[in-house]
Amino acid sequence: MAELLAVRDLTLGFHTDAGLARVLDGVNLTIDRGQVMGLVGESGCGKTTLARAVLGVLPRHVTDISGGSIRFKGRDLLALAPDVLSREVCGRAITFIPQDPYGSFNPVFTVGTQIMEIMKWKSPRREAIGWQAGMPALLQTYPAERRRADRDAVLKLLDAVQLPQPEQILRKYPHELSGGQRQRLMIAMALLPEPDLVIADEPTTALDVTIQAQILGLIRRLATERGVAVLFTTHDLGTAYEICDAVTVMYAGQDVESAPTDVFFTRCVHPYTDRLLASLPRPDGKVAGIPGEVPSLVTPPPGCRFHPRCDSAAADCRAARPPETASGAGHRVRCFHPRVRAAA
Amino acid sequence: MKTGWRQALSKFVRDRAALIGSVIILGLILCAIFAPYLAPFPDDVYEFHTSNRLRAPDGVHYFGTDRMGSDVLSRILFGARITIMIAVIAISITVAIGVPIGLIAGYYGKWPSDALMRVSDIFLAIPQVVLAIAIAQTLGPSIENVILALSATYWPFWARLVYAETRSVKNEIFIESAIALGAPPWRVMLLHVLPNIASAIIVRTSIGMGNTILTAAILGFLGLGAPPPAPEWGRMIAESREFLPEAWWYATAPGLAIFLVVMGFNLLGDGLRDILDPRIRRAASREE
Amino acid sequence: MNAILQVRDLQRHFPIRGAFNRQLGWIRALDGVSFDLIQGEILGLVGESGCGKSTLGKTIMGIHRPDAGAIHFEGINIAGLEPRAHRSVRRHLQYAYQDPGASLDPRWKIGRSLHEPLIIHTNLSTAEREVRVREILRAVGLPEGHLDLYPHEISGGQQRRVGLARILTLQPRVVILDEPTSGLDVSVQATVLTLFRELRAAFNLTYMLISHDLAVVRMMCQRVAVMYLGKIVEIGPTADIFERPRHPYTQSLLAAIPQIGGKRITRDFWLKGEPPDPGKLPSGCRFRTRCPRAEALCAETEPELRLIGAQHAACHFAELDSLRSA
Question: Is position B250 within any domain?
Fold first, then answer.
């Protein structure tokens, strides 16, 4: 089936000093094989938390997952045993490109050492079973033949991400590289295990706009070439427009609308999406913010969390969270009073 | 959301170690203030009853008597006054010297800071106790000289701390913007930098009190403190040496007192550090 | 058309130090910057990281001392003035940080933070200061009750307004806005920009808007200056710069902005590589290492800003049509 990742009704909270912050509330998200899905939303909407939940790296003792499932290739990641999760899924079938490439590198090792370390554990050529797999980590060996094959794969991929002189790059330390080069490395490292899904968490936010254009083009091209699905979180709608096949919007921990890109930007129906697009800067200067503030996640509004700031809100919006309704091919919205648009 | 310091106070009360520390210090202060009323034999500080000397602890003398026949417990309670006086005055002078030096060095940087920090390095190069002994020995045994010796050797620690804190706070945006607004340096240092580093100073001072008391006791032990018959704790331990191990209570009582007080200040300091530092940092940013 | 601020040939260099504090070279953060700021306008200053736009803002403000050049403000050359003399000039030239809320002392009540500029610069009595403070508070849209609150007790957006209010108490004529919308959500950004516009109208301000976000600059500014590695490479009216960019760097910058509803730019984006090491600038034109038009002349002589159409561009071949349509 075409569905690669299906998050259903995911509800989780973080324990903070002020109480339980209900960071995700019944979130649905679907990503098909080979699809580039944009996850957009403003600060506090939960997109990074959702990305981390899929990857399985939320801090265990403060996270409280109270419901829902994350089905990846048919298996519920929340129900998997931790060792299976870390061996087969994290860093293998699902990899991660972080927002800050510098902090993800260990500053005292060369880049080459760190990449080969990843290949030792996550290379697609590594056997998942056999007598070695059960042994403790310190005793596991890295056979020379596999190491050579892995190194060739690394150099080929560094070339594909347009890093000049890959051999030299491998010998450098992280601080000797520029932000754009580090991000290209992170992309390469995310693709080396030959994953099915890459989660890119705001990968170009920290980059200059011309470098951003290069990196976005790179991500799109590589994803299409290798048939890898991408979950691309961002708060910049322009970047979502550039490379995503479909876009999902989140507000304050709830998913509100999901549509293919062209439909999303021209025929969105959720009031929040509509206001969001209207607040983008325009040359003619006619731009409007959204009155009010993002609600506290410790005491969120009941029902649809956008209703206090919504101009179409009514009593039913406060009573219950709107269910998912279809508004066209691949276009899903959760609203009791969506905007009405003439058929295109 | 509860205001910053009320929240801090409730957290402080829940921290058992800090609570114990505060109780001990409170006890010390009360002992010092109410010594005449609490001591079973208040006159024993200056009178002596040689017939009573070196009695083991019993129902009358809870900690026995010393070589002059005076009640050890009473002398300890009066000794608390000397202890507190030395500690408070010494620390006050220390802070009064160290903080401004660190502040100026940290704020201006370059050659003033180099000069001031090198001077403090000189003081830091010599172990504090040794230097204090040398000063007190040269000037002669008295409480004033002990205080002088303590302050003179201890101020560099505060200067260093304030220097480091000032340098880091100086990079904060609100300091830069205060300067950009045209605030003169004295204003920035006193009204902006100092309040923001006060918590670090408070914590250090609390722990420093314990150390000061210990050093003062060492000086007293070596005979450099107040002359007899002042009931100084360190001196009492020195006196007890020749009567050990039979008159065990004679050394144990002042030793226990010193131990409790230093421990109390350390616990208090730790507790203060836990509530002051993360609290203030976190209060500056809102919860998500 | 009255120039309230004139910058001439401003230079600011940072030394590069190697081991043992040896000097290895210079980073020419500002390498001969000249422009005028016209009274009442909003001038945009754009460029990517390392171009020097933030350094320019801070040098004009006096946070950095320039190594050469002049800054004429209200008739006085304020470049390199001693801090004390600078202070009285500073009243009318103010600087808003990226997050004006962070410019508030977290231990001071808001009222006290608002009084402070007046205490430093004026001799007004407490009562007179209070009147002025309340007036400004109203102008930025905050309730008077906020005067007794601490910064952490109000929201980020309100902190920002307080930070701006503090600058406005001194009745400045020019405000330098340094990346005011960086990191903000789009909806919040719209509110902030509207606030800037209102304040400009109410207080008759002139803005210098430093930003890397071209969409914001296009919306807010009448004129734009584009910087690259310490120099202004193009400057002119906004409409002309955005519709007919003359300098190849400006063209690449505009080509890199996603246009929602238009063609995908990433597919054909042509600017390759990264900016050169700022400590080792190329000879002649500093953009030539990445410029598709580069020729021998570009390596020999550094181009100066010259008038082409409605704008000034620093390129030997600025008259050529743009290589790729934006």
Answer: yes
